[in-house]
Amino acid sequence: MSEKVSAAQLAVYMKGIDFPAGKQQLLQQAKTNGAPEKVISIMNQLPDRQYNRANEVEEEFGKLR
To answer: What angle do CA 36, 25, 13 make, to 5 degrees?
Structure first.
């Protein structure tokens, strides 16, 4: 029923973020970029830490799938 979110989709909604960035900054940027609820829901599951690069976010995202 629920669609899977890909790492590529996640990257689209992180566009414009300045790293390093915390989880809340990532969520805010995704919302600013119009991320759908399914993307916000996945991002809410990311560990609450500082991310230095986009690939660190993608690595954590990969662990959730």
So the answer is: 35
